Amino acid sequence: MTEELNNSEENTTVPEVVETNKAAVTPVVETSVPGQTKINPLLLTLNLVMLLGLIVLYILYFTGSGNHGRSISGAVEKSNKGNISVAYLNNDSILSNYELVKKMRADLQAKGTRLEGEVTAAQKAFEKDAAYFKEQVAKKAISDQSAQEIYGQLQQNQQKIYDLRDKYTAELQQSEMDMNVALLDSVMNFLNRYNEKYKFDYILGFTKGGNILYANDTLDVTNDVIKELNLEYAKKHGGK
What we know:
Blueprint: H1 2-7, H2 41-64, H3 73-80, E1 86-90, H4 91-97, H5 99-138, H6 144-198, E2 202-206, H7 222-237
Parallel strand pairs: 1-2
Helix pairs in contact: 5-6
């Protein structure tokens, strides 16, 4: 939705009303000094992440063999044996099936549509005024002094539209960030309560293509967590 607001600037086309100057940006090239060895912080971080991933993979493999069921019972059974207990959630499934996420997305979409409509209406009004101004100038129906005053006002109106668009884009981005924070807080608080019963040492977030390259299905508690999350949401919000 923020992209739609950004693209709205292209729709405001009024010839000879406003000119925009863009400053060229000169890229900065970082030079290296021969004989010196630099440690790439990003590469070091990635290596540490891969090492942690291998450790988790090792735990999953040696605690998960021999049971190919898909229910929560596999993870609970391993927990009861006194081993290091690990469970995981499929993040994509949480985002697709958690009712709170659906509600947040619908609210964000509605807000984006409303703000986009306001910008579009302002653009249309501006284009109408600008077209009328050009027509009056062509007919020489207004004096040069009046033309200059109206031209200046049109410039101000166009800048207000740009400012409004930028304001709404930033507002939508902030709303999206707030939504993500609220979602994370909701899930984390729930898992703290959830784990009072099962006492897992780790509950990992699994995403396809992420750092965890393999996860034993017996450790997957996603469906159970989604069910409990939605039950709590329905109880709190009355199904709304």
